[in-house]
């Protein structure tokens, strides 16, 4: 049997980075979205698990066999842009909404996406996260829609009782953060997790454009930089409930974070 763990998150929160680290652990198998292009069999398994009602799956299941997953591996499923209909086990990856929304804008600009294309993506997410928000997403600016969806997705996760790892803590102290997360998952430490970049060749990119061959970097750009006072206020207005539960605050126009111990 394969135990199934969901990584609850919101898009552009550093998911690929953490998934790369976890996939390197000998006991774990990330189902998809580490490499730039997923194998069809991985996508098929992922889509099946998004509506799968159980916490484990047999090794002889046809989709497991098709994906050639080694026996007894714990499966990690990225859970970002829908609300799961069944009870699940796993953990949460959080990032402050200001950096998330700036990253969404940067992602769109590198692909020269039109405003209509950006709104279409947010509308797709709204259908999965909360269909009642679709009319608002169709009318609001993308910044407002993204902040609203962030709160709708992250607040229940913050209140779920699942272990929460913040992206900012991961990049500030990778070793401590990864060791803590593995302890929460009941797994022993393995150095391969911290060295997960080493198997990749230079120039090998992953999902979302991450440079897979590079080690975890320390985030230095202030979260609110590049955002107007109006943007900061609107994002905070929509996302404040989730922000507060995750230990994010704004002081004097800059992101302020509760220390790890106080957050928990």
Describe the structure.
The chain is an alpha/beta fold and about 260 residues long. Helices cover about 45% and strands about 15% of the residues. It has helices at about 15-25, 40-50, 60-65, 95-110, 115-130, 135-140, 140-160, 165-170, 175-185, 190-195, 230-245, 260-264, and strands at about 1-10, 30, 55, 75-80, 90-95, 165, 250, 255. The model has no long low-confidence stretch (mean pLDDT about 90).
Which characteristics define this entry?
264 residues, 6-stranded mixed β-sheet, alpha/beta, two-stranded antiparallel sheet, single chain, 12 helices
Quick recap of the structure?
The protein has 264 residues and is of the alpha/beta class. Helix content is 45%, strand content 13%. Strands 1, 2, 3, 4, 5 and 6 form a 6-stranded mixed sheet that branches.
Topology:
Layout: E1 2-8, H1 15-23, E2 28-30, H2 40-49, E3 56-57, H3 62-66, E4 74-79, E5 90-94, H4 97-110, H5 115-129, H6 134-139, H7 142-158, E6 164-166, H8 167-172, H9 174-184, H10 191-194, H11 229-246, E7 248-251, E8 254-257, H12 260-263
Parallel strand pairs: 1-4, 1-5, 2-4, 5-6
Antiparallel strand pairs: 1-3, 7-8
Helix pairs in contact: 5-7, 7-11
